[in-house]
């Protein structure tokens, strides 16, 4: 257990089995206070010494979830707004059994076509989480502008347009695939 104790926050049962731990040994590690069960397939490593990141928790508690909307906008430094919960998108037909008390996780149900577009994996040592890329985040925020707020939506788009690494072509391609091209074009015309 010491080999992963320092650098892996959440460990799946499959990963533990690959390391040679039987279910009996996993149970013993739980009794000793080294592991804590998060859900049926994931354990929290209580001896983890690395940096805490709410996105790692979201990945553990919401398997196949993707960081989205204002949490992703905050990650990409598109807003000064500090979300009170981690926004996570999952496919409509999926269910989440348990959520932690902290960090608070807010679930958004996306259809399959919206979930498959623009997902990237961010790695930090042995830990990782999935997040929508910056253009997909901007399109989603414009699409959900009534839930998020018009001021926040405008701020995100203004900050995106100031970036040197912006890719307007990709933004339009995402908007077209997600059937919100007219709304995105209207916002861009107003701000540009």
Describe the protein in words.
With 192 residues, the protein is α+β, with helices and mostly antiparallel strands. It has 2 domains: 2-45, no CATH class; 54-191, no CATH class. It is 45% helix and 20% strand. The protein has helices at residues 2-5, 13-18, 23-31, 54-61, 69-75, 112-115, 134-143, 145-148, 150-162, 168-177, 181-191, and strands at 10-12, 35-39, 42-45, 66-67, 86-91, 105-110, 119-124, 127-132. The chain has a 3-stranded antiparallel sheet with strand order 1-3-2. It is elongated and about 60 Å long. The termini are far apart. The model has no long low-confidence stretch (mean pLDDT 92).
In short:
The protein has 11 helices and 8 strands. The chain has 192 residues and is of the alpha+beta class.
User: Got a strand count?
Assistant: 8
Share of helix, binned: 40-55%
Across the major sheet, the strand order is: 1-3-2
Structural class: alpha+beta
> What is the total number of structural domains?
2
Terminal residue distance: 55 Å
Mean pLDDT across all amino acids:
92
Largest sheet: 3 strands, antiparallel
The arrangement of helices and strands along the chain is HEHHEEHEHEEHEEHHHHH
Q: What is the helix tally?
A: 11
């Amino acid at each position: 257990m010491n080999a992963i104790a320092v650098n892996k926050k959440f460990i799946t049962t499959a990963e533990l089995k690959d390391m040679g731990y039987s279910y009996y040994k996993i149970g013993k590690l739980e009794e000793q206070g080294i592991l804590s069960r998060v859900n049926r397939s994931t354990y929290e490593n209580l001896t983890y010494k690395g940096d805490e990141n709410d996105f790692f928790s979201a990945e553990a508690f919401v398997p196949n979830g993707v960081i989205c909307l204002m949490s992703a906008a905050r990650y990409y430094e598109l807003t000064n707004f500090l979300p009170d919960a981690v926004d996570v998108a999952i496919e409509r037909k999926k269910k989440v059994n348990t959520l932690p008390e902290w960090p608070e996780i807010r679930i958004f149900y996306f259809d399959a076509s919206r979930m498959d577009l623009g997902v990237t994996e961010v790695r930090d040592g042995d830990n990782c989480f999935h997040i929508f890329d910056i253009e997909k985040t901007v399109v989603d925020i414009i699409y959900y502008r009534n839930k998020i707020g018009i001021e926040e939506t405008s701020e995100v788009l203004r900050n995106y347009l100031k970036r040197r690494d912006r890719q307007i072509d990709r933004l339009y391609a995402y908007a077209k695939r997600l059937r919100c091209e007219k709304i995105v074009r209207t916002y861009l015309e107003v701000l540009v």
